[in-house]
Specification:
The chain is of the alpha/beta class. The protein has eleven helices and nine strands. It comes from Flaviflexus salsibiostraticola.
Length: 349
C-alpha cells in the first residue's frame, strides 16, 4: 500500500518578489496540495530569516485552513522552547476549534534561528526533561477539564475582566487553555538526531524525522525510536511507532529540466552553509548534469515524476516509513506547484 504524501512549506521568497508574495504563494500551495490529494500541509517555524517568511506559523496555518476544506494543516514544527505551553495550546486549540479534526501540532527543540534572535525570543531550556514536561502540559491543556483538579472559586481572569478583586482563596488554581481544552490536538515529535528519537519514544509520540537535511542519522534514530517506544506513556498519541520522514524534491518533464530548476535549491544550500540568508535565486545551467546522486538521497531527489516517485518508494521501503513529507524549492512558484502536482499524480498512479 502506498503511504500518504504531505508537504512541508517555509514560505520562501524569491528575488524580485515581495514578502507578501511569498505568503500568498504559500496559501496557493496549500490549495494546490489539497486538490492534488496531499494529506497534510505543514509549516515550519523560522525567525529572522530573509529567505523564509514562516515565523508566525499559527497565523499562516489559520489562513491556509480558512481557504481549504479537507487537507490537514499543522506545524512542522513549533519550536517549543520558544513559547510557553499555555500559549501554544491556546493558539493551536483555537485553530482546532475553528477547523475541527484538521490541525496537527509538530514540536521541536531547536531554536529555529540564530543564537542572538533566540535570546530575543526569551527561550526556555531545550533540556530533554524540560521539553518532556512541556509536552505533558500540552497534552493536559488539550484534554478535558477533568485532566486537572479545578477549584470552584471565581476564576481570576474572569474576575479581573468584571472589575472584581477576588480574594486569594477564591482564585481557581488550575490553568486552562480555552478554547483549546477538549480539542485533543494530535502531537508529533520532530527530530534530526537520536536525541529527538529518544524523546519521541519516551513520550509515545509519532516521530517526524528531518531526513531532508540530516539523512545520515535516520537509521540510528529510527532504531532507537522503535526499540524504546512507550505506548503506555501518559503523553502517548499512537499505539505503535509511527514514522514520517522528509525529502527534498524537484520534478519536471525531463531530468535535464528538473536538474536545472533544482539549481535554485543547490544555491540555497550553499547560502545556508555559509550562514547567509536571502531570497531564492533564479536557476542556472551552470553545473547542471554534473551532480552525482547514487541511490536515494532524501536531501535532493530530482528527476521526472516516475523517477522521483520510484526513488521515494525505495526510501519508504528501506526504512519502513508510514508517511513522506516533501519540500520543494523553486524560484518560480508555478514551477513548485507543477512539480508537486506531478509527483502526487505519479505517486497515486
Amino acid at each position: 500500500m502506498t503511504v500518504p504524501l504531505s508537504i512541508l512549506d517555509l514560505a520562501p521568497t524569491s528575488t524580485g518578489r515581495s514578502r507578501r508574495d511569498a505568503l500568498d504563494d504559500s496559501l496557493r500551495l496549500a490549495q494546490v496540495a489539497e486538490q492534488a490529494g496531499y494529506k497534510r500541509f505543514w509549516m515550519a517555524e523560522h525567525h529572522g530569516s530573509a529567505t523564509f517568511m514562516s515565523s508566525a506559523t499559527a497565523l499562516l496555518l489559520g489562513r491556509a485552513a480558512e481557504h481549504t476544506s479537507t487537507i490537514r494543516v499543522g506545524s512542522g514544527g513549533v519550536m517549543l522552547p520558544n513559547h510557553s505551553p499555555l500559549m501554544v495550546a491556546e493558539y493551536y486549540g483555537t485553530l482546532a476549534t475553528l477547523y475541527p479534526d484538521r490541525v496537527d501540532l509538530g514540536l521541536g527543540r531547536a531554536p529555529g534561528t540564530d543564537p542572538v534572535t533566540a535570546a530575543e525570543l526569551r527561550r526556555g531550556g531545550a533540556d530533554l526533561n524540560d521539553f518532556a514536561a512541556d509536552v505533558l502540559k500540552l497534552k493536559r491543556f488539550f484534554g478535558g477539564s477533568d485532566d486537572a483538579t479545578v477549584d470552584h472559586g471565581v476564576p481570576g481572569s474572569q474576575a479581573s475582566t468584571l472589575g472584581i478583586e477576588p480574594r486569594a482563596h477564591q482564585i481557581r488554581r488550575a490553568v486552562r487553555a480555552i478554547p483549546g481544552e477538549g480539542t485533543h490536538v494530535p502531537l508529533w515529535m520532530l527530530g534530526s538526531s537520536t536525541g529527538g528519537a529518544q524523546v519521541a519514544a519516551e513520550l509515545g509520540l509519532p516521530f517526524s524525522f528531518a531526513s531532508h537535511f540530516a539523512p545520515t542519522h535516520i537509521a540510528a534514530a529510527l532504531q532507537i525510536y522503535r526499540d524504546r517506544f512507550k505506548a503506555d506513556a501518559e503523553t502517548a498519541q499512537v499505539d505503535r511507532p509511527t514514522v514520517m520522514a522528509g525529502v527534498n524534491v524537484m520534478v519536471a518533464e525531463t531530468d535535464h529540466e528538473a536538474q536545472y530548476q533544482a539549481s535554485t535549491h543547490t544555491k540555497l544550500q550553499s547560502q545556508l552553509r555559509f550562514g547567509s540568508t536571502g531570497p531564492l535565486q533564479p536557476p542556472s545551467w551552470d553545473g547542471v548534469g554534473t551532480r552525482v546522486n547514487p541511490g536515494v538521497d532524501p536531501t535532493h531527489i530530482v528527476g521526472t515524476p516516475a523517477d522521483v516517485a520510484e526513488r521515494i518508494g525505495h526510501f519508504v521501503e528501506a526504512f519502513a516509513l508510514d508517511e513522506i513529507i516533501v519540500t520543494c524549492y523553486a524560484f518560480d512558484p508555478a514551477v513548485r506547484e507543477n512539480a508537486l502536482v506531478s509527483l502526487a499524480e505519479e505517486w497515486s498512479a
